[in-house]
TrEMBL record:
Protein family (similarity comment): Belongs to the peptidase A1 family.
Protein name stated in the entry: Peptidase A1 domain-containing protein
Region of interest called Disordered, as start-end residue ranges on this chain: 1-81
A single BP term in Gene Ontology: proteolysis
Compositionally skewed regions (Low complexity) per UniProt: 37-54, 62-78
InterPro entries noted in UniProt: Aspartic_peptidase_A1 (IPR001461), Aspartic_peptidase_AS (IPR001969), PEPTIDASE_A1 (IPR033121), TAXi_C (IPR032799), TAXi_N (IPR032861)
Span of domain Peptidase A1: 203-556
Pfam families noted in UniProt: TAXi_C, TAXi_N
Length: 572
């Protein structure tokens, strides 16, 4: 066979078009095609040879004209010959091209799936649940040492006298028409946030409750089940608070046969009281403070992103007896917003009514300022998030996942158990390590003494504080003396595992004395001493999302000044 008769090689072309930067939802476009020149038959070659020199001298060579298609004398024979040459002559190139095409297709599917999901979401906005986003504010004015720790647990209560008699026919109210038609409203609500870890030690948002609606500031707490507001029922022990006490009417008291009362009292040793005319509750927090009261049902007003309002009836605690350190944290707030996985929590109640998908998120600014929180999945980014599966147990209502490894820089911190647990608790000001991990961290931090930092035991702010030889204005002035904490989830292989990195500004604060203090405490007496609790100090600068629908916890670095899907937030 002459070399001119050899088949031309296959040329594969793949074109990937990226979306414009200002509209990534358009997705990528991938185009793939093949160029192949079939072999020429002998008759075609002779015909072309005869046409190449129609006149002139025999040695003159004119450029070849464009080949014109002529049907072969035996089409079946040519087809068979072409296939055999392709399969036998260039299989490696063909297989390489096929592999590249398959890889490009897999890449396209993996990248575009989220974009397609986002486009489908935009088409289904009229049929999907809403989302609500709330502001978080600082609790101004508390300058004392604050080691606030939440993780509330419902405990037994003494059944007292009925505070308010149940009116005839007063039971759970139906969701109003405004909520029933909320699918036609804007699908999200957004409000601004303020707050800090020190000296205030609290992030809170506000709720509008009752008719007419009244404002109440509530401490945002992912470690608490029940939302409660200080109330005049009358009040046995209440802090002054930011607003007037909530005053329930007889029709607001939840009867004992209500299914949420059963949920609240399910862990009580005395069992659920079916004969009681009210639903009593008592909450014991990890810092030994407590709150007691009765369940109430009233109208909650939520503002959506487009300025419209939706109203619905929710169950919350009418808290008339607070004890312990809780009274100090209530100096500028009116109660606690329970955001856990329990059925009685606010997000679970909204999800059970079809108002939202059961997703909670918050974003706390790295410095004093605040951030925002939201209910619903409209503000969940479609890319850039790191996710870890939640531990799914009927006995666990807080947000918990497994940790396989923890490092301070390159040094491993012992967890004390083969697979430890991490709780994300926005109700705790600081982070708590198991005893072994805490001891290893403190030992590693002894190296900072070589950088001119000496421990100042006279500073009462936190257990470990250092004084520098120069004035410290912010953590940025001394962060280069410290290393990043890395929490590793999922798999022990470093490359394929999910990691949460906490920089020095995620575990250090500057005290009123101008010292740098360690915002990580010994948690050996909390949750059996084997659980790591991530508090506000380490959650700052991260968008944290608790997806109860898909049972996973996610995070991504953020300045938390505004949601990616919202306009700039006015401060309340």
């Amino acid at each position: 066979m002459d070399s001119d008769d050899a088949p031309k090689p296959i040329k594969g072309v793949v074109i990937i078009s990226l979306p414009p930067p200002d509209n990534p939802s358009l997705g990528k476009t991938i185009t793939a095609f093949t160029l192949y020149s079939p072999p020429r038959t002998q008759s075609q070659t002779q015909t072309q040879s005869g046409q190449q020199q129609p006149h002139g001298d025999d040695n003159h060579q004119d450029p070849l004209p464009l080949q014109q298609h002529q049907p072969p004398a035996n089409p079946q024979a040519q087809s068979s010959l072409s296939i055999s040459r392709t399969s036998l002559g260039i299989p490696r190139k063909f297989l390489a091209f096929l592999g590249i095409s398959m890889l490009a297709l897999i890449l396209y599917c993996s990248v575009s799936s989220q974009t397609q999901q986002e486009l489908r979401r935009s088409d289904d906005d009229d049929r999907r649940p809403s989302s609500f986003l709330f502001p978080l504010y600082p609790k101004w004015g508390t300058q004392k040492r604050d080691l606030k720790l939440r993780l509330g647990k419902l405990v037994d209560v003494d059944k007292g006298d009925l505070i308010y008699p149940i009116e005839e026919g007063s039971g759970p109210r139906k969701i109003d028409n405004l909520v029933a038609s909320k699918a036609q409203l804007d699908s999200a609500a957004i409000l601004p946030v303020r707050g800090d870890v020190y000296p205030n030690g609290l992030y809170y948002t506000y709720m509008l409750v009752g008719s007419p609606p009244k404002r109440y500031f509530l401490d945002m707490d992912t470690g608490s089940d029940l939302t409660w507001i200080q109330c005049d029922a009358p009040c046995t022990s209440c802090a002054k608070g930011a607003n007037a006490l909530y005053k329930p009417r007889g029709g607001n008291v939840v009867p004992s046969e209500d299914y949420l009362c059963t949920e609240v009292q399910r862990n009580q040793d005395s069992g659920h009281c079916k004969s009681c005319k009210q639903c009593d509750y008592a909450i014991q927090y990890a810092d030994q403070s407590s709150s007691s009261g009765v369940l109430a049902r009233d109208e909650l007003h939520l503002m959506m992103a487009n300025g419209s309002w939706t109203s619905l009836n929710v169950v919350f605690g009418c808290a008339y007896d607070q004890q312990g350190l809780l009274l100090d944290t209530l100096a500028k707030t009116d109660g606690i917003l329970g955001l856990s996985r329990a059925k009685v929590s606010l997000p679970s109640q909204l999800a059970s009514k079809g108002i939202i998908n059961n997703v909670v998120g918050h974003c706390l600014t790295p410095d004093a300022g605040g951030g925002y929180m939201f209910l619903g999945d409209d503000f969940v980014p479609h890319w850039g998030m790191a996710w870890a599966p939640m531990l799914n147990s009927p006995e666990i209502d807080y947000y918990c996942t497994e940790i396989v490894r923890m490092n301070y820089g390159s040094r491993i911190l012992r967890l004390g158990v083969p697979d430890g647990q991490v709780v994300f608790d926005s109700g705790s000001s600081y982070t708590y390590f198991p005893q072994q991990a805490y001891s290893d961290l403190v030992a590693s931090l002894n190296e900072v003494s070589g950088f001119g930092l000496t421990e100042d035991k006279s500073d009462p702010t936190l257990p470990i504080c250092w004084q520098a030889e120069f004035p410290i204005r912010s953590v940025l002035d001394i962060k280069h003396f410290f290393k990043t904490l890395t929490l590793q989830f999922g798999r022990k292989w470093w490359v394929v595992s999910t990691k949460l990195q906490i920089p020095p500004e995620g575990y250090l604060i500057i005290s009123n004395k101008g010292n740098v203090c360690l915002g990580i405490l010994d948690g050996s007496k909390l949750l059996e001493g084997s659980t790591l609790i991530l508090g506000d100090v380490s959650l700052r600068g991260q968008l944290v999302i608790y997806d109860n629908v898909n049972q996973k916890i996610g995070w991504a670095p953020s300045d938390c000044l505004r949601s990616q899907r919202s306009k700039p937030l006015p401060f309340f």
